[in-house]
Amino acid sequence: MPIRPATADAITDAAAALRDGRLVAFPTETVYGLGADATNARAVAAIFEAKGRPRFNPLIAHVADAEDAARFADLGPEARALAAAFWPGALTLVLKKRPDCTIADLATAGLDTVALRVPSHPIARALIRAAGRPIAAPSANRSGHVSPTTAAHVDADLCDKVAMILDDGPCAIGVESTVVDVSGPAPVLLRAGGVTREAIEAVLGAPLASHLDDEERPSSPGQLASHYAPRASVRLNATAARLGEAFLAFGPSAPNHVGPMINLSPSGDLIEAAANLFAALRQLDASGAPAIAVMPIPETGLGEAINDRLRRAAVR
Ligand code: TXA
Ligand code: MG
Judging by beta carbons within 10 Å of its beta carbon (0-12, 13-18, 19+), is residue 75 exposed, middle or buried? Predict the structure, then answer.
């Protein structure tokens, strides 16, 4: 059993394993990550192998702070403003790589940009500091599966692939980081996530362009339509569930349902709903129901990230 409570000793051992080129899963405030030394191409290759992830899909490197980020990439004025406002936190910035960037080309899929994030989770931060290098980490699930928000979720997908899973309980935010590309002339939202569009636009003082669902030319290579796929089929915008379906409800007006049902937030709170989303999808999927009916969720605040994940879960 590779799960270990995230004590100081466990973090020391995890950092040693990372420096040794092995994989360690660790908690962040968004979802659990599958970490490797981002400067070690073989260790990064092991991430792609463990997840069954296509190699054209680049990884996020997790760094200690904005100063650390500046060792690997150029931060322009917009990047600096966003970093000041949201780091540490659930924001990933896609930046122009510096010529002397030591992050492995495989981690960035050979692009001239690199995705960097400074997580706020104390265990993630301690691990980055103890490892003394950037940690490449996608969500710690098999490629295409629902992202993990507990150590047990990671264990279910990847137990034989990791040296250790650091356990610090469920993730507070529950959806992945927001990805903003600030490497070009204007910032572009590549993935809705834990920091809301509204909050980012308030800092930029301008609306954010988005390339969220350009199926033809995904500018964020990870934004493939079919993702977060439960075994059950997913039916969106359901006002009620049909007989035999499992029901993913939201808000105070949810109708009753005979059969498996989870209300993401009985009070209609989108923050609570995001935190519950992936565990609820896993649980309803495990009920054995052939389909999951999902109530409509507002497209504001974290609702944008929640709906993005649900739409991907609904694609077959
Ligand atoms: O919350 C999170 O972001 C979690 C935790 C572990 O930090 N990580 C995560 O990683 O969700 P992953 O690999 O599942 O998603 C990273 C996203 C993908 O959509 C990928 O295509 C995009 O970031 N990405 C990474 N590098 C990029 C780059 N240079 N240009 C454009 N998109 C990039
Ligand atoms: Mg992922």
Answer: buried
- Indicate whether residue 111 lines ligand 1 (CB < 6 A): yes
Spatial CA neighbour of 187 closest among 223, 219, 217: 219
Supply the pTM of this predicted model. 0.94
Cβ–ligand 1 contact at 220 (below 6 Å): yes
Centre of ligand 2 from the C-alpha of residue 268, in Å: 26
Q: Which ligand 1 atom sits nearest the alpha carbon of residue 137?
A: 6
The closest-lying atom of ligand 1 relative to the alpha carbon of residue 53 is 13
Predicted confidence (pLDDT) per residue in 156-186, tens digit: 999 999 999 999 999 999 999 999 999 999 9
Return the residue matching tokens 């997908």.
157
For residue 224, the cross-strand partners are: none
> Within its chain, how far is the Cα of 110 from the centroid?
21
